[in-house]
Amino acid sequence: MAEAYIVEAARTAGGRRGGRLAGWHPADMAGEVLNAIIDRSGLDPAAVEDVIMGCVSQGGEQSFQVGRNAVLASKLPESVPAVTIDRQCGSSQQAIQFAAQAVMSGTQDVVIAAGVESMTRVPMGSTGMLFHQAGLGRAKSPRQHERYPDIEFSQFMGAEMMAKKHGFSKEELDAYSVRSHQRAAAATEQGAFRDEIVPLPVQTSEGEVLHDRDEGIRADATLESISSVKLLKEGGVITAANASQICDGASAVLVVSEHALKEHGLKPLARVHNLTVTAGDPVIMLEEPLFATDKALRRAGMTIDEIDLYEVNEAFAPVPLAWLKHTGADPEKLNVNGGAIALGHPLGASGTKLMATLVHALHKRGLRYGLQTMCEGGGIANVTIVERV
Questions:
Q1: Is there a catalytic annotation at residue 273?
Q2: What are 232-259's pLDDT values in tens digits?
Q3: Where is the active site (predicted)?
Q4: Fewer CB within 10 Å: C terminus or N terminus of the chain?
Q5: pTM over 0.70
Q6: Are 74 and 29 in contact (CB under 8 A)?
Q7: Is 363 left (phi over 0), alpha (psi -120 to 50) or beta?
Q8: What is the pLDDT, as a whole number, of residue 131?
């Protein structure tokens, strides 16, 4: 089977809800990242055969096929098609996997996987609320009610269930969250994100500036400050401080075949080594990355110790902590530049965002293998293993 290579991987710096990126239309924001992929690779824009765009809240300014709208807001020609996909938090990680599958099958040679989410302009859950308010019923069908009676599918409740099942106290979750902020702050100061971030001009009270630093990082975070945030449920352990931050952002990854490398004179960053997606319990929901990782490693013929860096999305602190406990992975290799608790989780953009961070971190540290996974609504998880080249 043909190989798939990652040539470029880029992202915007994260913007807080109502923050610096609030003025950017999501199609324009995604278009800027597509432009950066083209500029940095030196690829002829007309050579792109498809754009696969992850987006979760496909309403408002993210409706009417935001992937295609992003192409039309970029320097890509009208001849470049696009599609918008939703695998919840894993939408753009799935975009990478679809792009790689297209290349590995020989169907296409040059595909951009991307993602976008303006959680300021299209709030999380807003599409479902509008649906219900219009009197059109609920997303959960009668047959789902029959199969899962009196159960509401909730990522928040899944996080509480994970913490209880795997035995994590609030103090452990908060301590992990402090570490996420500390690592993200250190990475920023050391320039670890410089090669992956696409600076965007934004208007501030002081005039136009370039937004090139993740806005949610709290460099002064302490266990005391994190622990003081109120619980989201009485008697629970989850707070806004040990969960991912609402975030605006866009990201993209250029995936090509070996033929395209030679034809266009491209230099790869990484080779796609394994693609896995699994599904499990939709109630606890967030636990599936544990089992998806097991399957991915079996299929790749690898052990967890052979992986040099891990990116496990910090949707909630119990997720990476349970993943570490289950896999026996080295915590020093996990989210070495911080994670979504500090950097933000722009839903549909997080998959390609994490991949941008992962491949650049492998290069900066001179390491070989990286593994990325994240929990997704409905009890699904993607795992992607890449090899630095």
A1: no
A2: 999 999 999 999 999 999 999 999 999 9
A3: 89, 345, 375
A4: N
A5: yes
A6: no
A7: alpha
A8: 57
Which residue among 166, 181, 273, 345 is the active-site one?
345
Q: Is 89 a catalytic residue?
A: yes
Q: Find the DSSP H helices in 52-133.
A: 66-72, 91-104, 126-133
The tens digit of pLDDT for each residue in 280-308 reads: 999 999 999 999 999 999 999 999 999 99
Residues 6+ apart with CB under 8 A from 200: 12, 13, 21, 24, 29, 32, 210, 211, 212
**DSSP one-letter code for 89:** B
Q: If you count them, how many residues does the chain have?
A: 389
CA angle 353, 359, 364 (to 5 degrees): 120
Strand, coil or helix: 9: strand
- Enter the tokens of residue 122: 């299209």
E-state strands within 170-282 = 200-204, 207-211, 247-257, 270-279
- Residue 302 pairs in a beta bridge with none
Question: Choosing from 55, 89, 181, 360, which is the catalytic residue?
Answer: 89
d(CA 32, CA 46): 17
Active site (annotated) includes residue 375: yes
